[in-house]
Amino acid sequence: MQNFSDTADQILPEIDRLGGRLGAVREAVERVIFGQNDVVEETLVTLLAGGHGLLVGVPGLAKTKLVETLARVLGLDARRVQFTPDLMPADIVGSEVLEENEQGRRSFRFIKGPVFCQLLMADEINRASPRTQSALLQAMQERQVSVGGQRHDLPAPFHVLATQNPLEQEGTYPLPEAQLDRFLLQIDVHYPDREAERRMLFATTGAIEETVPTVLSAADLIAAQRLVRRIPVGESVVEAILGLVRAGRPEESTDADVKNLVAWGPGPRASQALMLAVRARALLQGRLAPSIEDVLALAGPVLRHRMALTFAARAEGVSVGDVINRLTQPLR
Predict the structure, then answer these.
(1) How does DSSP assign 184-252, residue by residue?
(2) Against a cut of 0.85, is the pTM above it?
(3) For 84-93, what is each residue's pLDDT tens digit?
């Protein structure tokens, strides 16, 4: 565990300086994204923690608009890939072409794909085949891609914000479990409330559309990500994270119902993701250290794509959210 007293005086001024700017980032995003405050917060937590986010919701809920807005506000070089059933891995990472110079010598030249950016928007990622989806695995985990036996580093920072339609819609493919685990958070996007939708009508159908300023730079975001990893975490929060994640594994859970409901539970990467996410949420809200409240707020986004239910649980109408609510009860 980090020594709280040793680091508090050192990082508190940095948190204070960054807190105002992060507040400006959030305010700018919420000027054009209506009624999705929790979604905005969870997406910013993902980026501050240095991870990737999976935004899940039906079409038309401004998922794509959110990613475009974040790219502008954070000053990131962004690219967009529309995932379709005929999309190939080379369409994402790039490919080698054979060229001939004036002397007749032939050589291969690597042409970079859209993955070579700081913020990649993978739009409707589950509409592509599993082979194409898996092309992002190395990029998301190692921040580099291999083509023709050569490794090519990606820019820093590098983040993937993918949008996904619900699996029950036609023409979609489930994401491989290994790729799901690479997403720091699964961010569920729901319909806005009536008042937010009313504001949206006036803001988006007028003659002038709201524009957002650039508040941070890529260098600022990298500095914030380094600060996140220096934020101290109290022993009670560490124990809460460990207890929550391990209780979701049927092999280790002491809850008989969890053993019957969960086919496979979250691995160690879930603990790492939750540890980073609670730190990032504390920084976003201008606090020196995370609390149990942060663990409760982020348990769903961290765990919901890292667990699978048994056939019996699905037959009874139990959802992953129901299981997570059961797991978090001891912390409430």
Answers:
(1) SEEEE-----HHHHHHHHHHHSSSS---------HHHHHHHHHHHHHS---HHHHHHHHHHHHHTSTTT
(2) yes
(3) 888 888 899 8
